[in-house]
Structures
1.
Amino acid sequence: EDQVTQSPEALRLQEGESSSLNCSYTVSGLRGLFWYRQDPGKGPEFLFTLYSAGEEKEKERLKATLTKKESFLHITAPKPEDSATYLCAVQGTLNYGGSQGNLIFGKGTKLSVKP
Amino acid sequence: KAGVTQTPRYLIKTRGQQVTLSCSPISGHRSVSWYQQTPGQGLQFLFEYFSETQRNKGNFPGRFSGRQFSNSRSEMNVSTLELGDSALYLCASSWTGLNTEAFFGQGTRLTVV
């Protein structure tokens, strides 16, 4: 069964204190791994897609990396406006018994950045 | 470029009633997926429509159904509402639903009393 586990569940950082969020996954054939940011009461906002091990993508203070079993979201010198829940999702290959193309989400990491 | 639009934003219904939620995808996107988000279970996949056909379905009871129109707009229906159906219902659109980014709407907050 396809599944995604994110850690930690919650993370408190001081402004400027860099850290990483982890996303471990099990999927029968990875089509893509997706990172989203979600603010309270809003829909998830797309951040990155990673397709193969070794791939990296960056956007402002965020950098996502991918291995065959996990992905990391590195946050460099975070600011209070980076506070949100970060969601990781995988999409598996069609015709497998798992996600069959839809997104399987982890429970998320709630990030709080204090000034 | 307009994003994904979901209506209504908030709904309060009574147990036993039925409800219909609407989703207008990004122009040109042909895949629309629906997800239920609750604090305990997180985001769970309901179903996906592509070119008016249900292509994929999650593990939800038959009370949850949907459809897609020729303009790619989608509706989701829940019949015989239960208290446990209270959740944020999210719609996501993408070009093909495979290997492409999915963009979410703001969601419909459904409260069943």
Note: Residues 35 and 45 of chain B are 5 Å apart (CA to CA).
2.
Amino acid sequence: SQELEQSPQSLIVQEGKNLTINCTSSKTLYGLYWYKQKYGEGLIFLMMLQKGGEEKSHEKITAKLDEKKQQSSLHITASQPSHAGIYLCGADYGWDDKIIFGKGTRLHILP
Amino acid sequence: NAGVMQNPRHLVRRRGQEARLRCSPMKGHSHVYWYRQLPEEGLKFMVYLQKENIIDESGMPKERFSAEFPKEGPSILRIQQVVRGDSAAYFCASSPEGGNQPQHFGDGTRLSIL
């Protein structure tokens, strides 16, 4: 089974609406990364969370790591067309330096 | 201030040929990672290198694939005798020394096998 599950797999949202993407780990996380990938392009680093209960914001995007460090949510407020893309969460389990990625959430913004 | 540079962006090879993918890390970064993204699948870790050393190659196929990060020059991911199943996007990431540092990704090389 997948170590890192993202939901939903895809999301269609009207411009201006809020939305949330979830990432759940089957194991305790050492760290959790959020990246955004535009179709056919590379990954853009958004945020890194390490402490249980930690919350970080960047412009209209907020991400939180729960106290048990097994789940993270990414919230976008007042979505814009520029938010469209694939959002990937990545797990750092602490015993090595590789990132284990979820399958991503495809976000479409309707004008 | 250049980010992670990968070239070529697109590479087409015939079955049986060799593919060489290059990655120059961000300035000041000494750790390089390669990932592969197959169609409709997530990013999968392949290999982690520091200058002249392979640290973790647990995600690399046992045959035909190799990686290096020489003292001078870019990191190279080499695929010998390519097969159709090697068609994918290959991403390189880099990070600086020290723990808890985020990895920054290049734009990838899209490999197509005819």
Note: Chain A touches chain B at residues 31, 33, 35, 40-45, 48, 50, 88, 90, 96-104 (CB under 8 Å).
